[in-house]
TrEMBL record:
Protein name per its UniProtKB record: AAA family ATPase
Pfam family membership, one: SMC_N
Domain RecF/RecN/SMC N-terminal as annotated: residue spans: 319-947
Region Disordered, residue ranges: 511-532
PANTHER family linked: ATP-DEPENDENT ENDONUCLEASE, OLD FAMILY-RELATED, DNA REPLICATION AND REPAIR PROTEIN RECF
Listed transmembrane segments: none
Gene3D superfamilies noted in UniProt: P-loop containing nucleotide triphosphate hydrolases
Natural source organism: Thioclava electrotropha
Amino acid sequence: MTIEYKKDGSGWHRWDLHLHGPGTKLANGYGDASDENLRAYLEILEDSDVQVFGITDYFSFDSYFAVSAEYARLYPEGKKIFIPNCEFRLTETVSSDGRNVHTHVLIDPALASETKLRTLLSDLQTHKTRDGLRLRCSDLTSREEYHQATISLSDLQTALKKVFPDETAYMIVTAAGNDGLRGVDTKSARSKSISDELDKASHAFFGSDKSTGYFLSTNRYEDGSPSEKKPVYSGSDAHAMSDLARLSGDEAGFPPTWIKADLTFRGLRQTLFEPKGRVHIGERPTVLERINQDATRFIAELRVNQIAGYAAANGSWFKNVSIPFNPELTAIIGNKGSGKSAIADILGLLGESRQQEHFSFLTDEARNRKFRQKGYAENFTATVTWASGTERAKKLDEDVDELRPEAVKYLPQNYFENLTNEIEVKAFRKEIEEVVFSHVEESDRMGKSTFSELEDLKTAQSKSDISTLKVRLSELNIEIVELEQQADPSTSARLKEQLKQRCEEYRVLENSKPAAVEKPEEETPEQRAVSEEIERTRALQATITERSTQAVDRLSAIKTDLVSLGSLKESVNALDAHVKQSKEELRPICTRFGLDIDLIVSHKMGTASIDAKAAELAAEVKALEVEHAGEFIEGTDFGALTGVPALRKAHQYLADKLKALQETLSAPQRRYQRYLQTLSEITKKMEEVMGEDDSPKPGTIKDLDARIRYIEEDLQAQLDTRYSDRDGLARSIFNSKEKVRSFYEGLKSSVEEKLATVSSEEFDVSIDASFVPSHEFPGRFLEIVTQTARGPFRGAVEGRRDLERRMTDVSWNDVETILSFAKTIIADVKAEDISKQIKDVKRLYDLLFSLEYFEPRYELRLGGKNLNQLSPGEKGLLLLVFYLHLDKEKTPLIIDQPEDNLDNDSIFTVLARCIRDAKKSRQVILVTHNPNLAVGADAEQILHVTLDKADNYKFTYESGSIENPRINDAIVKILEGSKPAFVQRRLKYQIK
């Protein structure tokens, strides 16, 4: 018999390992093994979907000999496989009614020569006797003898080992149902013990899907010893032509058995090592349904060839290469430089992967360009064929077309290394966010296609609130900085010095008052008239001076008001535009629900009153700035003057007039008038130095005294109030950020459930929605600090280390510890001269209290450590777990050598399990040199590639299943791993 091994490896096929043939020794409903009966029997088998049959007979292989010989005659090109199955009744009983257990021996047809099979039956004695001698199985002749005969399990094992020293040549498969172990008398310790021993001696069991869970458990035995997981097969147990209808898989009580393996006995034995993943009882396996319904997401074949006319001047490389791919897990293996990454890169190129910059074989990076250099890649074309039949072709010097959707998810080795060595893990967290998004229910995505789009939608109000709060915080920090400057002891000392100086000025002015001059008693009428005119003029000048001061103050106030009115009008116009824009943004959704946004939101804004007020003030400004036309003369109405220039001109006119009048006085009158003038001037200056009672001007004695008193009595209370207000704003910002974090929190429940299934004591992985400090914060903070100045952050290295130490003590999910962190920094800086240490105090306050140096992020934890604390290998393991176990994308996942930074224990215990889960929902293509991934994850297909540089860079490959002997040899030759993994692989390789 010629064995055909499929290049695409292990596939799901229908197997029926328990059906009887014509002439079967007991319960024969077919009739004898005549040519007619055999032909009718084989026609049904040939037309069925079952590919492998276990032809069964009691204590005999006669049915197998007859059926296999007739099939070879009738169907010389037939593809059906027949395995000899001998059914024995054991001497051992486990049921309360004393029924004997039935067990089957399946023999590798490649080794099942007629001589060996008859020798086995000849060597095997039954409990029956004839003429005082025990009958051998080969001695049984009558129906009654076949019905009564039993053998012991130990005799069966001895005979098998004698005839087939290679134990991989056969399998003992015991019945689990009516005539098997599940009918054990649970009240009998003896029966349970016999059942356990039969279980231990059996390789597998015949039963239904109801028995599968029991035999996959590891705690079946009564004595508490661990039990091996073993496969269960369902068979039709056909005894008549009518029973063959069970081969359809539609007959109740006889569900079909699907086995994922090569159509060989070695393939069947592979189920002993993968009983859960390789055997399925029931409807078509899910992967077959997925291929049928989602064929655009399975790579069926890759073809690579030289272009016409290429004479292999720069190497043969790929010539007529055609590689089929298994729909589940393909492991690409080979020695270093054998072309493993070449296949992955080509698939990535044809699948429009967005990771082209990280390709290693098709790299376009100047310093590492290999195959993409001129004269190479342009001479080769590649074509990928999808299971749907559609194809995509490119020359290997072409680039990824980013206008096309990404048809594969490719993790090149370089990308993997960059991601896991990334200091701040920004890209890593983005990958996590997108995986989390893939678990969000479609109805909860609100029409958004990415995590960031949904985040923007759901957190827009919170982020707007934070922005508004930051504006208020900035304004408050301006006040605080000003108040702190006032509270600085140097400020009080400086004011006191200014007050002292002003008091001295006041004293000097007081002392500079002229000695009193009596008013002359005797005056001529003319002199008296001049004196009276001088007094009237001086009084008028004083009035003009007062009015001029008031006019200047009013003019200044109006101009300030006009600026404010201008800002008000701009704000109103901006508000109007914002409302209109917001209404238009809301209009589509209102229209969708049949609502009128104009009825929901109505607004009326007008700036006419602002314009009127501005015009009124502008007119007043004009009046206050008016000049006086002409010259002042006697009889000018000074009371009608309003403009500042006119009042100043009038003041000068009166000053000149006073001077002229004084020139006409007598010497006594002149002295008296000079005295009055000087006294008036000094008194005016003293008033200016002293200041007014109600609102003294800055720099006056009363102003300075009030400021000093304010600093000493009231300032600290105001500062404390501002500090409290700032804390309140920071808490409000935190609360708004908490709302953003709650968005993250709300999306992770399904991810947590999935992580729980892969988490273990050795691999304790969890996900949390946490506030995470920005990696940029130390740099932003230290930009504000003069690190050469004396203080807590002095020194570039020491200062950063001190800040990072402080950050490690912060609980970023607790606003009070964050505020304590900020306040402690400020207090420690203030212990020295803050002005020498901090370049911009307000900027420092804005940074610390705006809380913009941490953001909500998904924090993946491994063994209690967060991402920033993990080694590249640990981060790599988490990334792979996410893609393999959590990513809900259905496109093929291609991973190039992820294991380089991972230890074997992690690979064997975690990744292999995750890969097994991943291939249930998507095609996985894995480039690896680690057996724990290739074999530990039970790859359906092994693709062994070679690139013979000595033979002009000729690329070749072999492909097939693990159970394929040639592939088996390649795996053993190329791959190696930890001892536990090697022991498991040794069993899978079926090496003695």
